[in-house]
Amino acid sequence: MAREQGTKSVAQNRKARHDYHIEDTWEAGLVLVGTEVKSLRAGRASLVDGFAEVDGGEVWLHGVHIPEYSQGTWTNHTARRKRKLLLNKAEIHKIERKLSDQGYTLVPLNLYFKDGRAKVEIALAKGKKSYDKRHSLAERQANREKEQAVQRRLKGIPD
Fold first, then answer.
1. Model pTM?
2. Backbone angles phi, psi at 151, to 5 degrees
3. 99-146 confidence digits (pLDDT tens)
4. With 70 as the cut, is the pLDDT of residue 77 above it?
5. 60 φ, ψ to 5°?
6. Which of 20, 43, 118, 158 is the most exposed place for a label (fewest CB within 10 A)?
7. Share above pLDDT 70 across residues of the chain, in percent, rounded to a whole number
8. Coil, strand or helix: which one is 137?
9. Alpha-carbon distance 84 to 120, whole Å?
10. Residue ranges of the alpha helices (H) in 42-121?
11. Who wins on pLDDT, 30 or 67?
């Protein structure tokens, strides 16, 4: 059987970009058991409560919900177990240095298959204040209105 090519997105954490300032991102592999892979291939996962931490020179992903595989037997996995992320040592040291600063956290942004292997995009993020969130929403709304005005002008529709 030929190996899969390209990327297939399984889950995204859209709320993370709203709640955090994203500083830097990394792509990491996931250590999974068989039924987790089957459940992911069925497109079932949630990154909403997920976060990552560095522990003993390894990066662990916590709170990511991969539901039990429906056709699984007694070998099924637990839905919210901690999972090891595969990064090289230099990346782990860089992440560890940046996490030592106050207010930074590691959040998963995207869970996907790349060439048949499960990957997660993690980001170094700093929490936004509520006024930052309002400012981001207002800026996005202003850009949307500006684009709509330009499109109306190009189509010749009067304001």
1. 0.73
2. -65, -40
3. 888 888 899 999 998 988 889 999 998 887 777 778 888 888 999 999
4. no
5. -120, 140
6. 158
7. 91
8. helix
9. 11
10. 89-99
11. 30
Residue 51, C-beta contacts closer than 8 angstroms, at least 6 positions apart = 61, 62, 63, 105, 106, 107, 108
Q: Distances from the Cα of 14 to the Cαs of 2, 17, 124, 131, 157, in angstroms? A: 32, 6, 15, 19, 34
Q: Name beta bridge partners: 111.
A: 11, 120
Strand residue runs (E) in the chain: 7-12, 20-30, 51-55, 58-62, 83-86, 104-114, 117-127
- Amino acid identity for residue 98 in this structure: K
DSSP letter (8 states) at residue 65: B
3-state DSSP assignment of residue 50: coil
Nearest CA to 66 among 9, 107, 11?
A: 11
Supply the pLDDT for residue 10.
86
> Which of 94, 147, 77 shows the shortest CA–CA distance to 139?
147
Question: What one-character DSSP code corresponds to residue 6?
Answer: S
Which amino acid makes up residue 42? A
Rounded (to 5) percent helix, strand, coil in the chain: 30, 35, 35
Residue 44 tokens read as 């079932």
Amino acid 60 reads W
Count Cβ atoms below 10 Å from residue 126 Cβ, excluding itself.
13
| pLDDT given for residue 15 in this prediction | 83
Q: Is the pLDDT of residue 54 over 80?
A: yes
> Would you state the structure tokens that stand for residue 100, as one six-digit string?
């030592």
